[in-house]
Amino acid sequence: MNIYQENILDHYHNPRNFGSLSDNSNALSLENPSCGDSLTLSLSVEKNSITNIAFTGSGCALSIASASLLTEYAKGKSIEELTKLSKSAMVSLLGIEVGPARIKCALLAWEALQKILHNFSEKNL
Amino acid sequence: MLSSQEIQSLFPVFRNNPGLCYLDTPASSLTPESVITKLREYYEHYPVNVSRGLYTLSEKATQEVEYVREKTAQFLGGSSKDEIIFTRNTTESLNLLARTLLPTLKENDEIVITGMEHHANFVPWQQLAKQYNLKLKIVPFEKDGHIEEETLRTFLSPQTKIFSFVHISNVLGTLNDAKRFIDIARSIQPSLITIIDGAQSAGNFPLGVRDLDCDFFTCSGHKMFGPKGIGILWGKKKHLDTLSPFLYGGEMVSSVSEKESIFKESPARFEAGTPSIGDIIGFGSALDFIESFGKQSIFDHEKTLTSLLWERLSETFGDAITLFGPNPKTHIHTGILSFALEGVHPHDISQILAQENICVRAGTHCAMPLHKNLDTPFHATVRVGFSLYNSPDDIDRLIGGLQKARSLFTFSP
To answer: How high is the ipTM of this complex?
Structure first.
């Protein structure tokens, strides 16, 4: 299957929620060192819900498109809901099949999100 | 020289994957039929352990392994089979050296490497330096991928005990003038130990270890048409017999009591446990395969393809492509060429090429420190490597695939 579907290329060329937030208390940077992808994800939380989310970074089409799609999906969702978002649900958001060689690219933003949510929950126990 | 079609017919993988365009030899070369036949011969006719057995099958296996040891010594231009140690790969050979040379070092001694090492010749020294308070010095390379002799001189000093450097860069395709590097190093510290990482040069570079006059030379069988899982450490006998072993166990001892063990001479003292016997025997056939063409003609074939690729990429993509390493018009550029194409991440290029059955490598090629010094937005590159089975047809296909990638990524809806 060709992973370079119109939707993926669109999110790569015009990433949604690209940028940073003024409040970076819930931000995290991750790298995929062997391929050269890097990504910073930041979010604002109010009453257990994601009110705003943004990312910056550079990388392959898959890592950027998946970050863009994830930020669209996450906005307005509750922490609980997002913590339950599984790896396979993340891949479903992309709407393509992702093989083992590219799965790290597809999950980079998801991994950053899960780490931020985990840290947030620890801080606010 | 045979045509590329005739050469491809010697590799079963091309029969089983019609239309394969394989440009990833710097990672691993493909395996010729003759090597596979030899592996089968071992596993079907005398698949037993070496050295200990007094029965015919074990004698045969031992004889075959020792025959390959002799052949490897000749192939690398060494003087004795006792200077050949079989390891798993270049990485293991270099780790063996790092651990084995450690007792000869004291605090603040210097280890010198270059900025174009792959991780195998980087991480072992970095870790050794950190753990034992040694100084690791890294000689930087110039923008066009070569190392200035003057720069090298300033990094070497009388405190330098080890100088370990790559012969052919697995990213830049640079051929370092190993003989010259060693002469310079010895003029500054005559007794330093010189190590050549020959992972990319052992199968195609015509000069031998005695000509280069290094103390140690390391390489991997799987980059020389051999089986995966066999590597070589060549060392001067005078060093091998005095240095301490790296791995302890059976086969490397002449006697063991409850309190004491006496180690054998090299190479046995560095080959503890059962070696990868079949792979060693298969590697012998890989050496025959290379010799049937000649190292020089393989080297020239790869170099010619690189020059052509360099020219075609510049012509086709102009300013949108950055080519790394020496310009083949003015300097030697071996069969490895890395590049970056504007606006398309190396991973995406490699994936789009994969859809066309073209195999290249994308990323940092086990050389992250090197990529930090390259002028590319992603700190990653696409790497193409040539071998005997490649031809200008592969270049045509690669260019076609790259054009496809570029149009897909520069198209704005």
So the answer is: 0.83
